[in-house]
């Protein structure tokens, strides 16, 4: 197995770990906190890094990436970036109520992010 592929798999899996811990620890704590913002940021960085590496591999191999996977992957990164920025806004300028309810948005972003993650996993296992 190519080292770039191994690094990409590890970084995208780290994104899953950090983002999942962030989303569910936020939900459990009943309020958005700085540690959650940091976990969301780590998830975003690892996902962007892993996706960039995977894209590089696909471009050099000439393999065609399904358009739906490409679209949902890019949308997930954009949504994660928006989620991170919005979490920062809510953390510093939001009301206590918005800090307590932010976990609902976090869960939706996480669920959407799982679509390209699982699709990539299935595509990788089928090759």
From TrEMBL:
Keywords: Membrane, Transmembrane, Transmembrane helix
InterPro entries recorded: HsmA-like
Keyword Transmembrane applies: yes
Transmembrane segments: 6-25, 37-58, 70-93, 105-125
Protein name: TIGR03987 family protein
